[in-house]
Each structure stands twice: as C-alpha cells, then as structure tokens.
Amino acid sequence: MVSALTSTSDGAQLQLVGFTSFVPTTNALSSLGTAALGWSDLYVDNGSTDGGQIFFNAGGQSITCSADGLTLTYAGFTTITLFSGISFVYSGGTLSLQKDGNELASWG
Fold first, then answer.
1. 101 — phi, psi (to 5°)?
2. Which of 28, 54, 56, 61 has a CA-to-CA distance to 82 between 20 and 30 Å?
3. Contact 44, 53 (CB under 8 A)
4. Residues 66 and 83 in one domain
5. Which of 86, 84, 61, 85 is nearest to 73 (CA)?
6. Secondary structure letter of residue 18 according to DSSP
7. Co-location of 80 and 65 in the same domain
C-alpha cells in the first residue's frame, strides 16, 4: 500500500513512500520509462555489502549484474560492445576480444 505519492508541479520529482515492492498487476505489460523519457540511473541495494541484483532478459539475450560480476548472454551474437572501442567478436567458431578493431586475445 502506498502511503504517499508526491511530485513537483513540473513533474520533476516522484516519491513513493511506505511500500516494500513495486509490482505491476499484469505480467510483461508495464514499462518503466519510455524510449523518449528514460531514467538516468538505477540504484539497487539489498542491505548487505554485496549489493542487489539486476537482470534484463529479452528472448535469449540477457544481462545479469550481481555481486558475482557482470554476465552477458547473447544468443547468436557476432559482436558485443562493452564500452567505446572494446568488443567481444565471434566469428568462425572463434571468440576474440578487440580494442578499436585490433585483436587483443582470442579463444576457440
């Protein structure tokens, strides 16, 4: 039960008070933000030193971030860009780590 809901007149602030879970009423129907209006940061904490867990899944493609580290799963991928210039590339049965298109390491 939400005990308070406040916002500024320009809609810049939203505060929910008095709840422990934020759960939609229908599975896989609701969005948090839009393509044009997204959230800038997401902070997760489970109250211990290992932080919380974030899991995104879209049909065989997922990102899980937890105390164990970051896991990327991308079924049938050819390239996963970790950040500007750094990528994992899969081609011909070989997985390689590349920086700006130059191979740093390979497996397979």
1. 85, -5
2. 28
3. yes
4. no
5. 61
6. S
7. no
The whole-angstrom distance between residue 2's C-alpha and the CA centroid of its chain comes to 26
Residue 49: what pLDDT?
56
The predicted model scores a pTM of 0.39
The CA-CA-CA angle for residues 104, 63, 87, to 5°, reads: 20
Domain membership of residue 26 (yes or no) is no
Q: For residue 18, tell me if it sits in a domain.
A: no
Give a yes or no: residue 61 inside a domain. yes
For the beta carbon of residue 64, count every other beta carbon within 10 angstroms: 15
Of 57, 53, 81, which is closest to residue 69 (Cα–Cα)?
53
